[in-house]
Amino acid sequence: MRIVSSASECIPIALGNPDRQVVFMGIGFETTTPTIASMVKTCKVRGIGNVTVFSAHKVIPPAISALLDDRDLAIDAFLCPGHVSTITGTAAYGEIPARGCAAVITGFEPVDILEGIYMILGQILKHDYSVEIQYTRGVSPQGNVKAKGLIEEVFTPVDARWRGLGVIPGSGLEFRDEYREFDARTRFEIPEIDSREPAGCRCGEVLKGIIRPSDCPLFRHACTPDSPVGPCMVSQEGTCQAYYKCS
Ligand code: SF4
């Protein structure tokens, strides 16, 4: 197993090891998927046949629909992620104002978040809902058209399971038939992976905002950043790890 900083690094590795198979773990949202689609397209054009991708990509809009559909949540507003939105633009969030909720795309600096909340409150006070962009230094309404085109060319939506949330229709990406040769699942006939939630982990409720991480009995005890039990504690972007470090 090798750690790479870009999917494109698979190409020199594959060219340097023509008798070996290179499988790239394709994980991430709209932010990372275009670079992987670009790498796959390059392999196709150059006839590089010993690269495949294990696609575990996810897309944002179906997850938002699932949250809006959840009657237990009664969400008032979404702070939409700036990094994903550099690719998607505002269109990915169109369902939010249509269903009477506020939506603001923000950056990740504290002042970005504060201004995003301020803009959300403005929408709620006026009962005038739209997808506003606070993170104008990174996001345009149309997003990155070329990157979206790459995703569309290489991948097609498929139902996908989310840790803690279950299966969300159309929320994953699999290879289109034209690029199926790069699908690691197909080439190596990998069976469906039976993903189970860790016993006692309440990541689903944390992700939905139903409970705080500290409401989970495992928080700070059995579950820490050095010894994570659930996915929310694994990465620096995980809600439980952020709460662990900042509370
Ligand atoms: S503290 Fe750990 S076990 Fe509890 S919800 Fe968070 S990640 Fe899951």
Short summary of the structure?
This protein is an alpha/beta fold and 247 residues long. The chain has helices at 10-16, 33-46, 60-69, 82-88, 95-98, 110-126, 145-154, 184-187, 203-208, 239-246; strands spanning 22-28, 51-57, 77-81, 102-106, 131-133, 155-162, 166-175. 35% of the residues lie in helices and 18% in strands.
- Tell me the helix content: 25-40%
How many whole angstroms does the radius of gyration measure?
20 Å
Topology-level CATH name of the largest domain: Rossmann fold
Mean pLDDT: 95
Q: In words, what does this structure look like?
A:
The chain is of the alpha/beta class. The chain folds into 3 domains: 98 residues, Rossmann fold (3-Layer(aba) Sandwich), CATH 3.40.50.11740; 74 residues, Rossmann fold, CATH 3.40.50; 44 residues, no CATH class. It is 35% helix and 18% strand. It contains 10 helices and 7 strands. The strands form 3 sheets. The protein has a 3-stranded parallel beta sheet. Strand 6 and strand 7 form a beta hairpin. The chain is globular, with a radius of gyration of 20 Å. The two termini are 35 Å apart.
Give keywords.
single chain, 247 residues, alpha/beta, Rossmann fold, 3 domains, three-stranded parallel sheet, two-stranded parallel ribbon, 10 helices, globular, binds iron/sulfur cluster
Layout of secondary structure:
Elements: H1 10-16, E1 22-28, H2 33-46, E2 51-57, H3 60-69, E3 77-81, H4 82-88, H5 95-98, E4 102-106, H6 110-126, E5 131-133, H7 145-154, E6 155-162, E7 166-175, H8 184-187, H9 203-208, H10 239-246
Parallel strand pairs: 1-2, 3-4, 4-5
Antiparallel strand pairs: 6-7
Helix pairs in contact: 2-7
